[in-house]
Amino acid sequence: MGEDNADELRELGExxxxxxxxxxxxxxxxxxxxxxxxxxxxxxxxxxxPVEERRQxxxxxxxVRLAIETMIDDALARLQNQEEILQLEQERLDMTIPGIEPAxxxxxxxxxxxxxxxxxxxxxxxxxxxxxxxxxxxxxFEALNIPPNHPARDMQDSFFVDIPNLVLRTHTSPVQxxxxxxxxxxxxxxxxxPGRVYRRDDDxxxxxxxxxxxxxxxxxxxxxxxxxxxxxxxxxxxxGSDIRTRFRPxxxxxxxxxxxxxxxxxxxxxxGCRVCKGTGWVEILGSGMVHPVVLRNxxxxxxxxxxxxFGLGIERLAMRIFxxxxxxxxxxxxxxxxxxxxxxxxxxxx
Length: 350
Ligand SMILES: [Zn+2]
What we know:
Layout: H1 3-18, H2 22-33, H3 38-46, H4 51-91, H5 109-123, E1 127-128, E2 134-136, H6 137-140, E3 166-168, H7 174-183, E4 189-198, E5 209-219, H8 224-239, E6 245-252, E7 255-264, E8 281-290, H9 292-297, E9 306-313, H10 314-322, H11 335-338
Parallel strand pairs: 1-4
Antiparallel strand pairs: 2-3, 4-5, 5-9, 6-7, 7-8, 8-9
This protein binds zinc ion.
C-alpha cells in the first residue's frame, strides 16, 4: 500500500469535491466500490498474491475501502442536506402573494339585482313564493280578470303549449292567486314571487324570456298609501335616497286603480336623453290595488279585505342600475361584459 493508496484517496477526494449532486456521488461510488469498481478489482487482485502477502494486503485494502466508504457517505450526507434546503426554498409558500380570483362562479348581474330586490322586501317582512313557468290559462288569465278578448291572450303575444289550456306564463301575477290559495284565508298575505316569464317579443328592450318579481299584500284596510310607501322605500333602497319617483295612472285588468311607477333616468339624471326618449323618466314597474275579482278568485272576500300588488321587471331595473341601453347584452354570455358588474352590491341604504 503506501504511496499508491494515498494517491487514490486524494483522487477520490477531488472527485467528491467536484460532485454537486447526489446522483454524481452515486456514480463515483459505483466507479470505486461497484461490482467493476477500482477497489473491488484491487481486492480481487489480493487473491492472486503469494500466500504470505495476502493477509496484510487484504487488511490494507479493506481499510482503504472503509475510508472510501466514509468519504462517500460524508459527501452524500452533505449534498442531500443541500438539496433538501434548496428544494424547501423553491417550494416555500409566500402567504403575502395575492390570490387568483376564479373566472367562474360570479353571480350574473340579473341574479345580483333579483337578490337585492328580494332583500329589500324580506327586510319588510315579505316571504318568497314560487309558481310554475308552464301555467294554466285560468291562473295566467281568467283568475286575474283578463278577458278572452284581451291582446295578451292572442297567439301573437303569448307562447302556448301543445297541451290545451296551458301557456308559458306571461307574468308572475298567477302567483298572486296561488299565494292567496296557499294562505287559505289567513292574514296578512305578504309575498314576493320572483321568476322567469315568457312573451313573444325580441328587440333591444325586450327578450322572449325575462324575469319579474311580483309582490302582493292582502290584509284588513290596506290602502293606496301602503302601496306608495312600500314602493318608495324600495326605490330609495335600490337606487339611492336622491332618486325621484313618479306614480302615473294606468290600466291593468287585475288592479283597480292601477299605477305605473317611473324613476328619474340614470343616464341624464332627469334632464332628458335617448335612453328615456327625452322624458327624463324610466318606467320600472306596474302596480295597483288588487281587483275584487282577483281577491275573490284567491279565496278572499273583497268586502272584508283589500290588497295591493305590483310587478317589477328585473331586466329593466338592471338596465337602470347598470345604465345599459341594450338588455340583450345580459344574455350573450360575454364573461368580460358580465364580470364588469361582479362587484356591485347595491347602493348604500338610507
Ligand atoms: Zn334620460
